[in-house]
Amino acid sequence: MPVQAPPSEWELTSDEIKLIQKRAQLRATTKAEFLKRYRNPFYQTVPGHFVDPQNVRLYAYQQNTYRYLYTAPRILLAPALFVLAGTIVQYFVQKHRIQYNKDCNEGKVPYAKRPDFNAYF
Question: Where are the membrane-spanning stretches (predicted)?
Answer without folding.
Answer: 75-93
